[in-house]
């Protein structure tokens, strides 16, 4: 038989050729041993990608079935728009035509989104530069873009894709977007409600039909996720008021033909209102049934409350955790009496097994060192799991003030049923504050200002502050540092060094100056988890440079003690802090008692200050904050109390609505009768109601608050007098901004006097209360 040269082709005509089987006898190839495999048509794809997908190798037998499998595998890679197999003798030739790749993605007409946001959305959907392109990819990109716009209630969006071929088998994708107008909610209805009015129920929703602040909150923009959240709020409202069998039957969302307005209808069934008839404990309670019963917040005789049930089960779980049972199962099972509309609960508990902590991990800290978080933990690795210590540890980490959110997650260790790992997940906040400024005036000429405060310098947990001001009227250089773990036992060390020179501004008729230089060191010793005692000492030198316009009290001070004086004060203090957070507390109490005593030098005095703050949560969104501060000072060794240690009041931090430090005794006999001198006695009272900022959800870093302030300072021979307190009220915004805590307040004085200096709108960075 004469040997003939045969050339056979198997062509994939379209994408579905991946399923083509070479069974037609006209194309059949007798099985043969492959001597060589060649690949043609590659531009960017590596040959190894082809060879790895072939079901045969050199030296193996080729058959039609294997050829079909090879074509399907190569099409399955998604890299080729055409694949052919050719046989030349015992050599197999794989001929491919690559799909073009995406060189660039661009957008035209996008106003609602930044282009980088849209590129990221497409990239997350698998569409990005360098990816193989086909029509299905373009369709997928269009759908993803429309989904992004629909999430923002832009239902009329139109997307047109333009594909521009360029060199080296590449294409540019351009998406031309016509965004259209925002579709707004025009109607929201609830049907089936009997116990509560529709207006009451709709008032619970974050979404609404619009109001005066909708331009900011965008509450009239429909969002499926927000609607689901509103439905959960509605369900919680009913379940906490006795409606055990409440349900949402259906949700209907209708959009107008022009895609500009949306109507939402919720169909609900309230069910009957149930009253709790009793609570019974069942299961293993470690012989501490009475202790667990004290944790029950489900009250017989009161309407069923899902929140009380959840609170009880959580309290039981937490209490089991204090004994090391990290996997305790607690379930409250209702026994429903529909005839009498009563429900009894059986709280079933199974402590399961005791566990110990294998490892503690820290996550989310890109800047703060692990050590800073770990040293606050009172739950240790390789120790028995203790729920109380874990909660205390979480609160201690939160009180550092370096994080906007702190959570402790528990994970079981695979294959080891009695071990758990703890992960401390933190969300860092900016802890630095940089101030740069320059000014020019006829009085100061050119002045430069520089300040840097870093509460978590280099992620070490230490504080470093530097302030520099070259103004003629207020020159200063201040260096401060705090090491909260000066010793391994948690003793802190604070060092302050300062040099200040103050002069009256030009136009006030004076050219005197005050120079203050000093340094101090203070240590803090933790006595309990919440109590710290401080003690330290320092040295301060004060120089009065006489000149025109020297206030009368300063002149009396100089005549009594000299124009240059020094003092050596001893300091002692105590603080107790059990707040849940130092940054945005919602519960707990903070107390501080501080005193200094001038024991040596030219100035002898004693001064004490006591402050207490109480935070009372009303619910998850609203918090009442109360603050009280009492200051007292007295001169010793027959001296009057030094004017340079006086307290001041007025402005943010004390009584809002009055100029900063403007309250109290004034220099009535001097050249400037409006000059506030402060006083050795101070009383400040504040009350705030903190609420979520409209549209910000439960973001704790941005809050709206209303307040009432009262306070004043008094002279040494005056007594504390409530009738002399200045009182104001107003509203404000509290924001943990990238440059530090920012508080803005608008206040209206309720009790004032003619000589008071008012300032209704005030703001400051770094102020609390």
What can you tell me about this protein's structure?
This protein has 769 residues and is of the alpha+beta class. Among the domains are: 7-98, Roll (Ubiquitin-like (UB roll)); 101-178, Ubiquitin-like (UB roll), CATH 3.10.20.310; 184-269, Ubiquitin-like (UB roll) (Roll); 275-350, membrane protein fhac (Ubiquitin-like (UB roll), Roll); 356-428, Ubiquitin-like (UB roll) (Roll). Helix content is 15%, strand content 43%. The longest helix is centred in the N-terminal third of the chain and has 16 residues, at 135-150. The protein is globular. Residues 1-26 and 439-444 have low confidence and may be disordered.
Question: What descriptive keywords fit this protein?
Answer:
36 strands; Ubiquitin-like (UB roll); disordered N terminus; 12 helices; about 775 residues; 16-stranded antiparallel sheet; globular; about 15% helix; alpha+beta; about 45% strand; four-stranded mixed sheet
């Amino acid at each position: 038989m004469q040997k003939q040269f045969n050339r056979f082709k198997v062509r994939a005509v379209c994408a579905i050729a991946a399923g083509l089987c070479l069974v037609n006898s006209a194309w059949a190839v007798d099985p043969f041993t492959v001597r060589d495999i060649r690949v043609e048509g590659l531009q960017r794809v590596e040959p190894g990608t082809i060879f790895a997908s072939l079901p045969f190798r050199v030296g193996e037998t080729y058959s039609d079935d294997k050829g079909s499998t090879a074509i399907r595998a190569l099409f399955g890679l998604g890299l080729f728009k055409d694949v052919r197999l050719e046989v030349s003798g015992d050599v197999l030739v794989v001929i491919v035509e690559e799909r073009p790749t995406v060189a660039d993605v661009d957008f035209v007409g996008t106003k609602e989104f930044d282009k980088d946001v849209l590129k990221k959305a497409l990239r997350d959907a698998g569409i990005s530069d360098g990816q193989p392109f086909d029509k299905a990819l373009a369709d997928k990109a269009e759908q993803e873009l429309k989904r992004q716009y629909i999430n923002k209630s832009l239902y009329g969006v139109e997307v047109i894709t333009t594909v521009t071929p360029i060199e080296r088998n590449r294409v540019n994708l351009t998406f031309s977007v016509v965004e259209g107008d925002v579709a707004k909610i025009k109607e929201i209805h609830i049907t089936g409600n009997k116990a509560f009015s529709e207006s009451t129920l709709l008032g619970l929703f974050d979404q609404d039909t619009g109001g005066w602040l909708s331009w900011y909150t965008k509450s009239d923009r429909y969002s499926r996720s927000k609607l689901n959240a509103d439905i959960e709020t509605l369900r919680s409202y009913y379940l906490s008021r006795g409606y055990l069998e409440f349900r949402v039957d259906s949700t209907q969302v209708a959009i107008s033909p022009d895609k500009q307005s949306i109507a939402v209808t919720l169909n609900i069934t309230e069910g009957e209102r149930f009253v709790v008839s009793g609570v019974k404990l069942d299961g293993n309670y470690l012989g501490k049934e009475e202790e667990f019963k004290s944790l029950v917040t489900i009250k017989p005789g009161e309407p069923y409350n899902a929140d009380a049930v959840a609170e009880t089960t959580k309290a039981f779980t937490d209490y089991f955790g204090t004994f090391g049972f990290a996997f305790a199962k607690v379930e409250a099972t209702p026994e429903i009496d529909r005839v009498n509309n009563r429900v009894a609960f059986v709280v079933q508990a199974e402590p399961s097994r005791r566990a110990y902590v294998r490892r503690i991990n820290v996550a989310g800290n890109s800047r703060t060192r692990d050590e800073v978080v770990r040293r606050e933990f009172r739950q240790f690795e390789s120790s028995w799991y203790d729920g109380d210590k874990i909660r205390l540890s979480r609160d201690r980490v939160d009180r550092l003030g370096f994080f906007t959110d702190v959570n402790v997650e528990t994970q079981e260790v695979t294959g080891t049923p009695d071990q758990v790992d703890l992960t401390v997940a933190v969300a860092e906040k900016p802890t630095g504050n940089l101030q740069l400024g320059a000014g020019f005036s006829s009085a100061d000429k050119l002045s430069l200002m520089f300040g840097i405060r870093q509460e978590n310098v280099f992620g070490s947990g230490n504080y470093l502050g530097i302030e520099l001001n070259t103004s003629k009227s207020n020159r200063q250089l201040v260096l401060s540092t705090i090491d909260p773990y000066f010793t391994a036992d948690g003793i802190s060390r604070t060092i302050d060094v300062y040099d200040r020179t103050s002069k009256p501004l030009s136009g006030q008729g004076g050219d005197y100056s005050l120079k203050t230089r000093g340094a101090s060191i203070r240590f803090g010793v933790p006595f309990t988890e919440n109590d710290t005692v401080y003690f330290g000492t320092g040295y301060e030198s004060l120089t009065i440079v006489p000149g025109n316009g020297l206030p009368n009290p300063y002149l009396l001070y100089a005549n009594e003690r000299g124009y240059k004086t020094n003092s050596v004060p001893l300091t002692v203090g105590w603080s107790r802090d059990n707040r849940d957070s130092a940054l945005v507390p919602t519960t707990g109490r903070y107390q501080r008692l501080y005193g200094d005593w001038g024991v040596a030098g030219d100035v002898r005095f004693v001064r004490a200050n006591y402050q207490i703050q109480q935070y009372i949560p009303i619910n998850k969104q609203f918090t009442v904050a109360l603050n009280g501060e009492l200051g007292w000072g007295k001169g010793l060794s027959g001296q009057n109390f030094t004017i340079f240690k006086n307290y001041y009041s007025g402005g943010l931090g004390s009584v809002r609505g009055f100029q900063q430090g403007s309250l109290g005794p004034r220099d009535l006999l001097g050249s400037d009768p409006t000059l506030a001198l402060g006083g050795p006695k101070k009383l400040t009272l504040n009350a705030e109601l903190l609420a979520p900022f409209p549209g910000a959800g439960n973001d704790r870093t941005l809050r709206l608050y209303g307040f009432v302030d009262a306070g004043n300072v008094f002279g040494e021979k005056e007594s504390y007098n409530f009738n002399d307190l200045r009182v104001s009220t107003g509203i404000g915004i509290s924001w943990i901004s990238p440059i530090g805590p920012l508080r803005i307040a608008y206040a209206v004085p309720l009790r004032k006097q003619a000589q008071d200096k008012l300032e209704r709108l005030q703001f400051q960075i770094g102020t609390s209360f």
